[in-house]
Amino acid sequence: MPDRSDAPHRLDPTGADQHAANERLRARGPAVPVVLPGEVAAVAVTRYEELKEFLTHPDVAKNARHFTALREGAIPPGWPLTTIATVESMTTADGNDHRRLRGLVTQVLTPRRIEGLRPRVEELTTRLLHALGEAALDRETGTSGVVDLREHFALPLPMAVIGELLGVDSDLQEQLHQLSDLIVSTTTTPERVLAANRAMADVLGIVVARRRAAPGDDLTSALLAAQAEDGDRLTDRELVGTLLLMVIAGHETTLNLITNAVRALCTHPEQLALVRAGKADWGDVVEETLRYDSPVSFFPFRYPTCDLAVGDAVIPRGTPVLVSYTAAGRDERAYGPDASRFDVTRRPTVRHLSFGHGPHYCLGAALARLEATTALAALFDRYPDLALAVPDHDLPRHPSFVGNSTETLPVRLHPEPASR
């Protein structure tokens, strides 16, 4: 039954039942009052057309100085979404500041550079697939057992790639992932949030110090060079904030994308058969996964700079607004009555919004697509009988309504041996 209550919807910080909740939210309207952890009032924009317009509206800002409750001191210390809201980077900048910070990154993250990473992505994928088989091996029986594909494949590939792009040495990469997990989690306690922020700043400080002492062909070195050339182009806080953004966005999104795609294919074997029959390709799989089960769900924040009408609702100035990519991806108004069906042959007339829209469109979209298509093609080529090892409904959720995926993805690489 649609939720027609006028009471604000309380977002579940564990991320449970996101798609069912999204359906209820879309039924209530394009902009719905929600309650965030810490009893913080916000609004979620959930329908495709209204979300697309909202993302480019001239009266919508991203800088947290427009966040009324934060400015007035009403946000509790250690609030789990503070870091995402206030980090000094292009994701929280507007106008000239946004263009300046984005421009520094685009000088390095060019289409040519991304395409040049293809051989390295293929090499890493091959190596990880071999390690995946080793991790699944039951040493006592010599047969392949169960392995967590998320931990052993979907995570290390984008983490290694973004590590190389940023110049992050391998000894720091696992720590950065663990801290990223804490920062994007919406169940983290205030004490752990504050500790994670301090630890992340310390680790990124080490990254900066190492690249300052030994520059390389990486984004951190390029940002340091730009800062040395003109200190007004990039402050120390903006440097660390940009690295934080790139670490989180550069691997968490692709990690969830690969996980969600494998899960969708395993639960829709007829769709995998269409790919194998040549009726769809791996690019189609990635695009449909991005629409059907976006790796990012409720992304914080944007703020109306005046009372803003969205559909039949009015969002008061200074209200923190979450954009719901998972909700928009299954909006029947945009994708038809079968919007909730996974279909790799779908040819929608509108593009999904999972990488955003407008000035803040994700700079790493092409890299995520490269990594995901390479990973999926190689994975199912090497392990054509790959299957979930537990029922889909038993997969534990990643504890966040920002990220959208499962915490683990246990699979069997080969058919389970017949019992004797």
TrEMBL record:
InterPro entries assigned to the protein according to its UniProt record, in alphabetical order: Cyt_P450, Cyt_P450_B, Cyt_P450_CS, Cyt_P450_sf
SUPFAM superfamilies xref list: Cytochrome P450
Keywords of the record: Heme, Iron, Metal-binding, Monooxygenase, Oxidoreductase
A Pfam family this chain is assigned to: p450
Listed PROSITE patterns: CYTOCHROME_P450 (PS00086)
UniProt-listed PANTHER family: CYTOCHROME P450 YJIB-RELATED, P450, PUTATIVE (EUROFUNG)-RELATED
Name of the protein in its database record: Cytochrome P450
The species this protein was found in: Streptomyces roseoverticillatus
